[in-house]
Amino acid sequence: MTEATLSSYVKEPLVFAQENFSSSDELFEQVNQKASDLGWVREDFLERIKKREETFPTGIQLMNFGAAIPHTDAECVLEEFVAVVTLQDPVAFKSMEDNSKQVKAQIVFVLGLNQPHAQLEMLQSLMKLIQNEEILSQVILASNSEELINVIKINNL
């Protein structure tokens, strides 16, 4: 079995570099639209990811950046993926640690996972990226999806 690293889940159609969204809902709608067109998610994916984010916020305030890692139930996901969205203007997400606070996310990883055992490995790979501000800033500054994917691959994430 191949290692469940971040780069094995990040797939070109679901990488959005330097985007502009007015809200997390708009961001979710865009990811859902693309994933639906590809047949990677069930039709309840959008509704469930919004609801889960409302109940269990995923905003993380890092030293220099804000990030979010929204996800939903495994049964909504038909083909596994991690959508990566970098934003020109940050989008507000509620903080994972204190949902009365907001995190202005410049990068969002939408997790579309349906294999619990692989999830842990992939999350470890993702946390390695999030905790390395130097690599993270390269990902955030990537001007297009190809460049963004390259940064993740080069750094063995």
UniProtKB/TrEMBL annotation:
The keyword Transport applies. Transmembrane segments: none annotated. Keywords: Sugar transport, Transport. Signal peptide: none annotated. The keyword Secreted does not apply. Residues 8-155 form the PTS EIIA type-2 domain. It comes from the Bacteria. This is PTS sugar transporter subunit IIA.
